[in-house]
Amino acid sequence: MTEQRSTARRRRADAIDIGMRVFADHGxxxxxxxxxxxxxxxxxxxxxxxxxxxxxxxxxxxxxLEARIRQVLDQTxxxxxxxxxPAMRAGFRALIAxxxxxxxxxxxxxxxxxxxxxAAHSRAVIGRILExxxxxxxxxxxxxxxxxxxxxxxxxxxxxxxxxxxxxxxALDSLRDATTEGVT
Length: 184
Fold this sequence. Notes:
This is HTH tetR-type domain-containing protein. It is built from nine helices and no strands. With 184 residues, the protein is mainly alpha-helical.
């Protein structure tokens, strides 16, 4: 059997998947395109040919983050058509469990403080996700605002290494309990 070479489209998808993990761990500034290339088994110039720049790969990773969130929203809404929002929240918590989405999003927020292109791209991602969630759930603005706030809280708690298996309220309670016991 002969080994079949990957297409540029497949290699691009591989680079994005690997890039999401690398950027989640190291951010845009310190992430190494060489690390992405090494994990793909290709040369660094090949990765640059696929995307043109490290920032373009980063933006492509944000687009993939959006696609993954939208896929979770679609799946959970289809499974719970009568009341999809709670299922969407649970699906989101499951999606971020490995830390990649959380890390990448926090890195994007950090970069956005000084990079207007990343900031605009990140705002657009949030806007499209909110619009998609509204369409799937028929939730109103206040309910969507609460869901976004809860999602941001869950991302923060996950990044801090909190156990979210019992839900975000249980994680918050454990933080409060630790503080009242004098442990931080």
